[in-house]
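User: Round two. Same drill as before: sequence, then structure, for each protein.

Assistant: Same drill it is. First protein:
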Amino acid sequence: MKKIKYLGLFLAGWMATSFSSMASLTPPMSKVDLLVKAAELERQAATKQATDINAANSLREQANQMRAQAVKIKDSDHK
């Protein structure tokens, strides 16, 4: 039974690393994509607010970082 548990942990770790390496191959997000993702994080933060204030604040901080990143992108870069 322990072998199955460790095999599962190994596979989970392997999948996580392979997915993270695939994510690094994706092109950078556009301004619109960043703003949409930031809005989604804000929505998640609003639903977490009642149960976990720290998680909500973390999500809001991520949303703010995405908005700041979107502001740096020139509109002419994505036409």
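Second protein:
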Amino acid sequence: RISFLSTAEKPFLSKLALQMKLVVFTPKESPPTRQLYVIFDGTVRYNGRTLGPGSTFGESDVLLRQARVRVKAVCNTYLQAGCVGPDVIETLGDEFPLAYWSIRKFTIFRALADYMISSLREAKRRATLDISRVKGDRRDRRPSGEVIEPEAKEVSRHFAGILNLGKVEEII
């Protein structure tokens, strides 16, 4: 069920599963970074998204050694997950280079998507501040009163469509 592991060889998946540690976190607790988590039960808020059973998080922390920002997850409910660290994945990568490359490729694209989303959020924040200084504007507004620039909405929808991220309004 995990998309980026769907092409991995079965022996790789077996060894990865055997190396996983089972962990449980309480609501509002933040799982440690630098781990790849596979959610078995519960929900967690990670990078602006709510993730549930079958989802993963922490890929970029594990596989991008020079990640500038480590995103913290916060549990919404009790969370049961399996986790592995970067050393396990790199060791398995020596034995299964195709599976390792597949995971790295997914991680790079996910990191790019996360970067673009954070850049769009920052651009939207700046545009909102600039526009809020102008009196009498007739731009779209959210129920909270926040201004949404038409150009920013269109760019956001375009990138969300390319990256298959879902509704833009939920992301930014």
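The chain has two domains: 3-95, 111-171.

User: Perfect.
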